[in-house]
């Protein structure tokens, strides 16, 4: 995974690394039927599987059969089209409708309270239920259990991430008239600005998609005119894709070559987070396109030791504040100390309470410390702001 041209095999990626002719060549690949023998169909180069067959394999005693299915999925997500559709993945539509009803109740309550905005779409065109996974569990534990006791979801997550993965979901409704998104890649690197991405070596660009699996559970029928997710098969193989996504050339290529699959209620679509994709335009007059967006994360995205970096930052701040005004102390040293102490990554976050700042992510602990130092905040003010940030993240 992460193919790149011969001339672009350097450790660091920059704008010169982006060869759109290579991306176009990658996206002209065809899915070889012999590479996905367990698929029931191939539509627009995307292998399609039948949920009943997955459940049969999961319930049986033939471990080799399950492994063969998962191996096929891993090859598709990594070196193949990067996208997989499972029809009838949720076979109990009564449970699905029950979860939809809970989501709608929660959405109405949040709308009444003024929360629940979608940071990634114009207000009024989309409705987003952040942290839907936890909210469903607390609102209706039985429905949560029946909804997540799903062989397709489990086997797919374990195939790409292995055991110990963690799930988050966001309910998302695109209303009639909802506009299409700009093409993008997803979490982790897809949520960062190009200037930040250039600081990461190429092997990290190749590695990060292996830490996350993206998916969508269709809670309504999604005909093409309702704008189901646009995807560009094979685009996850383009190593500089995180840098390329914001370029006009990438948008033009995506617009010319993307594909969409109509979904039925109960279908599940999964894709490598490095696949270029975008929500489509809902051109209908009466269909609210309703999906539960799934993001599963690898258990290995954790440090070995549990550090209270908030407490560390509060203890360090007055010393660093004083050192900044000392002779011979450089801004470079301030940055080095902040990096050694504070939490660098802004996630996980409560996206309702911590909306994105200057892009798609809220402030990290490190960014907050640097901002407070630049503003000349007192130690007490910084301690309150760090405490508020940790409270929003529900740290313990």
CATH superfamily of the largest domain: q2cbj1_9rhob like domain
Sketch the topology as an H/E string, one letter per element.
Answer: HEEHHEHEHHHEHHEEHHEEEEHHHH
Uncertain parts: 4-8
Please tell me how large the radius of gyration is. Answer: 22 Å
Helix-residue proportion? 25-40%
Strand order of the largest sheet: 1-2-3-9-6-11-5-4
What do these coordinates show?
With 396 residues, the protein is α+β, with helices and mostly antiparallel strands. The chain has helices spanning 20-26, 51-59, 63-78, 93-113, 132-139, 141-148, 151-161, 194-197, 202-207, 241-244, 248-257, 309-324, 331-341, 365-375, 379-392; strands at 41-43, 46-50, 83-87, 126-129, 166-174, 212-218, 230-231, 259-260, 268-271, 277-278, 289-297. The chain folds into 2 domains: 6-297, q2cbj1_9rhob like domain (Jelly Rolls); 309-392, no CATH class. The strands form 2 sheets. Strands 1-2-3-9-6-11-5-4 form an 8-stranded mixed beta sheet. It has a 3-stranded antiparallel beta sheet with strand order 8-7-10, with no helix packed on it. Helix 14 (365-375) packs antiparallel against helix 15 (379-392). Mean pLDDT is 90; it is low at 4-8.
């Amino acid at each position: 995974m992460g193919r790149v041209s011969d001339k672009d095999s350097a450790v660091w990626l920059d704008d010169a690394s982006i060869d759109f002719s290579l991306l176009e060549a990658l996206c002209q690949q065809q899915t070889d039927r012999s590479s996905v023998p367990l698929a029931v169909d191939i539509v627009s180069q995307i292998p399609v599987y039948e949920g009943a067959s997955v459940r049969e394999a999961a319930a049986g005693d033939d471990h080799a059969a399950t492994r063969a299915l998962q191996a096929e999925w891993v090859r598709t997500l990594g070196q193949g089209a990067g996208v997989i559709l499972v029809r009838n993945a949720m076979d109990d539509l009564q449970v699905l409708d029950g979860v939809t009803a809970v989501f709608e109740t929660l959405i109405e309550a949040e709308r009444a309270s003024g929360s629940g905005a979608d940071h990634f779409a114009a207000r009024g065109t989309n409705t987003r239920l952040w942290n839907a996974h936890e909210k469903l569990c607390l609102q209706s534990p039985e429905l949560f259990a029946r909804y997540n006791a799903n062989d397709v979801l489990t086997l797919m997550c374990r195939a790409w991430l292995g055991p110990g993965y963690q799930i988050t979901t966001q309910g998302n409704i695109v209303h009639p008239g909802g506009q299409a998104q700009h093409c993008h890649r997803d979490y982790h690197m897809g949520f960062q600005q190009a200037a930040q991405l250039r600081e990461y070596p190429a092997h990290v660009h190749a590695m990060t998609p292996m830490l996350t699996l993206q998916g969508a559970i269709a809670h309504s029928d999604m005909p093409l005119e309702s704008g189901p997710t646009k995807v560009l098969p094979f685009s996850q193989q383009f190593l500089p894709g995180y840098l390329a996504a914001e370029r006009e050339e990438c948008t033009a290529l995506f617009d010319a070559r993307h594909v969409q699959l109509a979904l039925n209620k109960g279908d599940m679509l999964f894709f490598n987070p490095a696949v270029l994709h975008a929500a489509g335009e809902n051109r209908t007059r009466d269909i609210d396109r309703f999906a539960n967006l799934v993001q599963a994360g690898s258990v290995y995205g954790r440090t070995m030791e549990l550090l209270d970096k908030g407490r560390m930052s509060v203890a360090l701040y007055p010393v660093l504040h004083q050192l900044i005004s000392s002779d011979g102390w450089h801004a470079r040293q301030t940055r080095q100390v902040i990096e050694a102490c504070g939490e660098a990554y802004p996630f996980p976050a409560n996206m309702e309470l911590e909306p994105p700042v200057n892009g798609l992510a809220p402030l990290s602990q490190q960014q907050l410390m640097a901002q407070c130092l630049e503003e000349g905040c007192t130690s007490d003010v910084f301690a309150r702001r760090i405490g508020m940030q940790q409270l929003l993240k529900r740290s313990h």
